[in-house]
Specification:
By secondary structure, the chain is mainly alpha-helical. Helices cover about 75% and strands about 0% of the residues. The longest helix has 24 residues, at about 50-70.
Length: about 70
């Protein structure tokens, strides 16, 4: 379910140009209707080890960036 909301956010909310709340609401409801008519399970393309490895690399980069920004203080 969380993945569906992520996709909705990316494809409709962030990329859309909504002139009103009503237009945004209409877009969201149309997306939900489309999904309900043709539901598909989300297919992961990476293994858990690949995802965790990517996350570990990202965390190391964040830690290095944080250490660099604190050196001057």
């Amino acid at each position: 379910m969380e993945r569906r909301f992520g996709e909705l956010t990316t494809k409709k909310i962030k990329r859309g140009a909504h002139m009103s709340v009503a237009a945004l609401d209409k877009d969201i409801r149309e997306r939900a209707k489309h999904w309900s008519e043709d539901p598909r399970p989300y297919a992961w393309v990476k293994t858990a080890d690949q995802v965790l490895g990517s996350l570990a690399r990202y965390c190391r980069r964040l830690l290095r960036a944080g250490a660099r920004s604190h050196r001057g203080n």
